[in-house]
Structure formats: C-alpha cells, structure tokens
Amino acid sequence: MRNLSRRKLAALALCAVSLCAVFGAWRGYAQNRPVQQPGQAQRKWDYRYDTASKSFPTEADKARIAFYGVNGWELVAVVPGQNENALVFKRIAQAGK
Predict the structure, then answer these.
(1) Can you tell me the distance from the alpha carbon of 72 to that of 89, in angstroms, rounded to the nearest whole number?
(2) Each residue's pLDDT tens digit, 53-90
(3) Are 74 and 87 in contact (CB under 8 A)?
(4) Is the peptide bond before 80 cis (omega within 30 degrees of 0)?
(5) How far is 40 from 24, CA to CA, in rounded Å?
(6) Average pLDDT for residues 37-65, to the nearest whole number?
(7) What is the DSSP string of 18-81?
(8) CB contact set of 36 (below 8 Å; sequence gap of 6+)
(9) Angle CA 93–57–51, to nearest 5
C-alpha cells in the first residue's frame, strides 16, 4: 500500500464503496421482488443505454430523460464514468420488435 498514491488509494476506496452499494441494492431488490407464479410468462425487458454529462443532471440531461420517459423508458441506473456518466433505461419488451 505504500506505493499507492493518495489519489489511487481514494479511487480504490471509491470503487469499493460503489461495489458495496450496488451489491447491497441488488440484495435488497432480490429479497423484495415478487415470486413468479407457476404458469405465468416470464416478463422480458428492452434496455437502452445513453450518456450524460459529467455534471449530471444538466437541463439537457433532464430533457433527454423526459423524452425517454414519454416513450415508455424508465431510468434504472446512472453509472459514473471518468469523462461522462452512463444512463441505463428499461421498458417492457415491445411485441414484434
């Protein structure tokens, strides 16, 4: 650990905290999701990915998210990146698409 600069150590700590948050949220989701009934069809999802500015949310980002919402997409994650953030949207799969 002596060879790591403070900046690298801070980045490593941030990654560790982020992973704990993601796994904690996933665990809570998995425990609270409804159990599928026998004979019930598995729900299928469409996913779409987009980018947002590093200073998220700007007015342009809000407008883009609203546009997706009008078209049936739900924002499910904002993933921070080095230069920009990634947005993850999902909606129920459209028949025939």
Answers:
(1) 10
(2) 888 788 988 898 899 999 999 999 999 888 888 999 99
(3) no
(4) no
(5) 28
(6) 83
(7) HHHHHHHHHHHHHHHSPPPPTTPPPP-EEEEEEEE-TTPSPHHHHHHHHHHHHTT-EEEEEE--
(8) 42
(9) 50
Note the pLDDT of residue 7.
Answer: 72
- Determine the length of the chain: 97
The two three-digit tokens of residue 58, written as one number: 């700007």
Range scoring the smallest mean pLDDT among 22-26, 43-47, 82-86? 22-26
The CB density around residue 52, as the number of other CB atoms within 10 Å, is 22
The CA distance from 2 to 53, in Å, is 34
Cα 30 off chain centre by: 16
Contact 59, 49 (CB under 8 A): no
